[in-house]
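Two folds, back to back.
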Amino acid sequence: MSVLNNFDGWKSFLGNRLQSAEQNGMDDGAINSIATEVGSYLAANVEPKNDEQRLLAELWNAADQNQKQALAGTMVNLVKSSKTK
């Protein structure tokens, strides 16, 4: 099963990668920059597999660069908050 098929699985996957990045000393600015790059890649190359991903793709495609950075940062925050629950 692909991590993209289930939104909770996707968040868990991202959370594990985020934790690894933080443990290796990556700062929030670098993490948000990479999250923005990943968002751009996914929007351009990956078909959404569920309603949540479709919504994120629509928001991403409607956003300007500053808004994309904000969406990526929000997704990072969502993943961080999911890890603490």
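---
second:
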Amino acid sequence: MRFRACIALLLYVSACATSAPSPREPAARDPRLANLQRAATLPWTDGGRCAVQEASEPWPVLAERCFHALDHDRIEFHDPTGRCAVASAGAAAMGLGVCVLAAPELVVGAVIVAGVVVVGFAIKETLDAYELLGDEPEVVMPAPETRPVSEAKPAPQEPSPKQKPKPEPKGPDFPPPEPPETSERDRRPECMPVPVPHRGGNNDHNKCADRIPYNSFSGWDVRVNGKDFDALQLAVRTLWEVKTDDFDIHSPRSQAFFAKVKLPEIRREARLAKECGYNFVVGVKSAAHKEALEKLDKTLTIAVMEWC
């Protein structure tokens, strides 16, 4: 109970912090992205899959739920501030470790990692997807201190997706991680992504959608909220709708008319995606098509699909 109280206190402190970020540490626009960048500085036995799954939660929650997936042979936890000592008194060493790791701000000397950290494949894939969409701000995240491998146990290589993660550590006083909580909208059956066959009649359109980087259901459409979207990047919760019209062959007047006619349907698709907590991207084949849509609605996210 005292350990849970510590996590709750850290969440409260994180939510109530009002100090402005310094120029060298600009704030991330997306807390999920900030969590992933912080998780990228740590060694994981599962390639960072747990961190990606829990990235939408506040950092203290992610730290608690994914602590078991860290490579504990390479990490030392210290409590220079003493704020975790009371909550962890009488608990296993892991209890102290979770409390230290869950702190909203990383204290110097609190987390020490042996050897060089290779970013987990799951975290790297998700960060690459953010970069593809152009949503990655310049964020300076504090990194744990590192020690040469010679001063600690040899650093194991980052496991590949086919390798099995290490068994979950079992401490006598450390409770097993609780199953991830599901938000109310994720419980709605219409918000669960369901792969469905591509609509026939336009093979070039379907091939273009299948080649979207990090498409979680390549070869399929994805039904969400009653709408069959062309693609879903599950790692960044982003639905895509692809427009493969030969926009550039028309006159400027026809282009403006065509974009205006298509706009209501695009806005409806964006609304359906947002209702279920997904981002929405319109994929187009030309910069002229992108510019025409942006003139009509600057709130849309539009990407030129260079692979088409």
